[in-house]
Write a sequence for this structure.
């Protein structure tokens, strides 16, 4: 399987504090891969560094291209999109306007068709198209954040804690959407504190601890690992 994303020796510092300490990993085209770990392990920092939102050291290659020289706003045009922790929607805009912002860099004739596909995948957004986004429920806002990212036609979708703060039923719905997105051929790198759910939907996983990758394997192997079960699955 060809690597869509290759990360080698990634380091991120906050002042004198090393948050990510030289990690290396890859994501193959069409894969769903997760990063799991406790709060403060460096998961969100890793995604922000990949999205060029934080200064970092090391080498990151996406579709064979080094990303070091690109500002974050240029990545969506390359097919790399981030759904940030906390959703990051435009709270004072309508649902439809938020989705339009997901395609801000596009001027092709297929934007309208992509909007219809997003509405078909997330029918609640069609129902709420004229509603101010900040008045949506937490689950609806998460759906909107995913839909907005999809309007950029990503080949690689970075998802940061999509289940955070959601009721169990809504968590199930969000992950059904994530599975559907993956089934459409979008590669996914998932950061998720709900390790059990992440390992159930992904093919492979990496375990981060204090800024370092301490385990890497197929998701089923990690899910059965006694260390993972004790630390992250509550067994």
């Amino acid at each position: 399987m060809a690597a869509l994303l290759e990360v080698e020796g990634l380091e991120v510092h906050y002042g004198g504090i090393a948050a990510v300490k030289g990690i290396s990993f890859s994501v193959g085209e069409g894969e769903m891969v997760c990063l799991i770990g406790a709060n403060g392990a460096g998961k969100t920092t890793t995604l922000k560094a990949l999205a060029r939102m934080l200064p970092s050291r090391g080498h990151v290659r996406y579709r064979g291209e080094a990303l070091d020289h690109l500002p974050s706003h240029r990545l969506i045009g390359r097919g790399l999109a981030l759904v940030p922790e906390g959703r990051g929607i435009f709270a004072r805009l309508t649902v439809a306007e938020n989705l339009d912002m997901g395609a801000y860099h596009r001027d092709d004739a297929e934007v309208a068709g992509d909007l219809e596909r997003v509405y078909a995948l997330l029918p609640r957004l069609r129902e709420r198209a004229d509603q101010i986004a900040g008045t949506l429920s937490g689950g609806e806002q998460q759906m909107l954040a995913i839909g907005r990212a999809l309007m950029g036609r990503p080949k690689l979708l970075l998802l940061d804690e999509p289940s955070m703060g959601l009721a169990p039923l809504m968590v199930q719905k969000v992950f059904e959407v994530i599975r559907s997105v993956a089934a459409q051929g979008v590669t996914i790198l998932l950061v998720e504190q709900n390790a059990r759910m992440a390992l159930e939907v992904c093919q492979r996983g990496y375990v981060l601890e204090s800024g370092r990758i301490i385990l890497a394997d197929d998701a089923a192997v990690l899910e059965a690992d006694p260390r993972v079960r004790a630390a992250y699955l509550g067994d």
Remarks:
- The chain has a mean pLDDT of 94.
- The CA atoms of residues 42 and 145 lie 22 Å apart.
